[in-house]
Design brief:
- The chain has 2 domains: 172 residues, Rossmann fold; 141 residues, Dihydrodipicolinate Reductase, domain 2 (2-Layer Sandwich).
- Helix content is 29%, strand content 18%.
- It has 14 helices and 15 strands.
- The strands form 2 sheets. Strands 13-12-11-7-10-9-8-14-15 form a 9-stranded mixed sheet. The chain has a 6-stranded parallel sheet with strand order 3-2-1-4-5-6, sandwiched between helices.
- Strand 12 and strand 13 form a beta hairpin.
Length: 435
């Protein structure tokens, strides 16, 4: 059955965790001594992005590795010969000497191991998007605050010097009050398909893949290469579509700098696109998220463009692909993924120096989390920040699937103007995979 989260508890947890990056006090983390000065880490998902995460924490003690793909598992086991090998992370999470886990799986497998790890009091690094559903994000935000463990969502670009400088410029008022943000990505398209129907045929399951474990909490169905390895992202049962993939990166500085996670009344969300497909995310989508005043910050509209949709001609020249454009009362700031911000118009800002740097520089996203596990220091994308952020991002998909403008109350944790949309806030779990 779908998990029910106590809504008021979530708000307490979110505020305790801090919705602003770095707001979680170092003293609130439960620290660990490590083994020989190193952290005992279990890795869940060690192929693809998970392999990169594993490499990034390999300075620590890797005591367990897990993957449903025998080839990926074998390669990770060969690199870390002292680690116990598993195909089922539910078994890995019973290993006694674990202190922390990293999770690099498809989206539908983010919450089940994260919840289990948090309940056990383990530190957690989980890839983005943090969860598959809004309800999962709320539960994980609450659990992380209760357990006082070090957490990090895998948005490595959160620590990029360009994003840090962008936040400093916006917070210092370089372009005045920001009333519009435009964010665009070229995905899906050539990256993976969306807007597709159920595949035909029953191809043989590859010998290296445990299909039942790959499905995990999702409903049983026949194997098909339309789902695995990377095409899973466009299917609702496994992924969160392009917005779940890229908005978590590209919308991050807007959420951070403009404090979009601060309670500000209902969030109004409209998503335009082709007719909703019950199985797959759309080929294109234009989403508008409207936020009211947040303290002294002006109301703002955040536009999201994905796939085949185009930005309006009036802003298209200033909006870099896979980037953002902030429009303020006194100018604009454009930034591309992994680049430095650019103040516009250039002539106006050619001699502008901006504020002295004041936000903490990062030792690296994974290193930052490891240090927090050991010493109680800060992380930028802790679950008190990334849980509410993931929730906001996923509202775009909910508005699209619901077929109309929704008004989401962040305190109540539900859509108030269209009760039928609330079905998309949660999901059913296959027996044995409940959270």
């Amino acid at each position: 059955m779908a998990n029910t989260v106590i809504r008021r508890e979530f708000m307490v947890a979110a505020l305790a965790g801090g919705v602003l990056a770095g707001a979680l006090p170092a003293s609130s983390y439960r620290r660990v001594a490590g083994s020989g000065g190193k952290l005992n880490i279990g890795a869940i998902g060690v192929g693809g992005r998970g392999a990169g995460d594993l490499d990034a924490v390999s300075s620590e003690n890797i005591v367990a590795v897990c993957d449903v793909d025998a080839r990926a598992l074998g390669a990770a086991g060969a690199r870390h010969s002292g680690a116990r090998k598993y195909q089922d992370y539910r078994q890995l999470l019973e290993q006694k000497d674990l202190e922390a886990v990293i999770i690099g799986t498809p989206d539908h497998h983010h919450a089940p191991p994260t919840v289990r790890a948090l309940k056990r009091g383990l530190h957690v690094y989980c890839e983005k998007p943090l969860t598959h559903t809004v309800a999962e994000a709320r539960l994980i935000t609450r659990l992380a605050a209760e357990k006082k463990v070090a957490t990090q969502m895998g948005t490595q670009n959160h620590e990029h010097p360009g994003y840090i400088r962008l936040v400093e410029l916006i917070q210092s008022g370089a372009i005045g009050a920001v009333r519009e943000v435009h964010v665009i990505t070229d995905r899906p398209g050539r990256w993976w398909p969306q807007g597709v129907d159920k595949p035909f045929g029953t191809p043989k399951v590859p010998a290296n893949l445990d299909w039942d474990l790959w499905l995990g909490p999702a409903a049983m169905r026949d194997y098909h290469p339309a789902y695995v390895p990377f095409k899973w992202r466009g299917w609702w049962d496994f992924g969160c579509g392009a917005i779940g993939d890229m908005a978590i990166h590209l919308m991050d500085p807007a959420f951070w700098a403009l404090e979009l996670g601060s309670p500000s009344g209902p969030v109004k969300v409209t998503s335009e696109g082709p007719p909703a497909n019950a199985l797959s995310a759309p080929k294109w989508m234009h989403t508008v998220l409207e936020f009211g005043k947040r303290g002294k910050l002006a109301p703002v509209k955040v536009h999201w463009y994905e796939g085949e949709t185009k930005a309006p001609a009036a802003i298209a020249a200033d909006l870099p692909m896979n980037g953002s454009l902030f429009i303020g009362d006194a100018g604009k700031i454009a930034i591309q993924h992994d680049q430095m911000p650019k103040l516009l118009p250039e002539e106006k800002f050619k001699d502008y120096q901006g504020p002295a740097a004041y936000l903490p520089k990062s030792p690296g996203h994974h290193r930052q989390w490891i240090d927090a596990c050991k010493n109680g220091t800060r992380t930028g994308s802790h679950f008190g920040y990334s849980g509410p952020f993931t929730e906001i991002v996923l509202l775009g998909n909910i508005a699209h699937r619901a077929g109309g403008t929704i008004e989401f109350d962040p305190v109540l944790g539900k859509v108030t103007n269209m009760p039928s949309a609330n079905i998309f806030l949660n999901k059913e779990y296959r027996k044995g995979w409940e959270i």
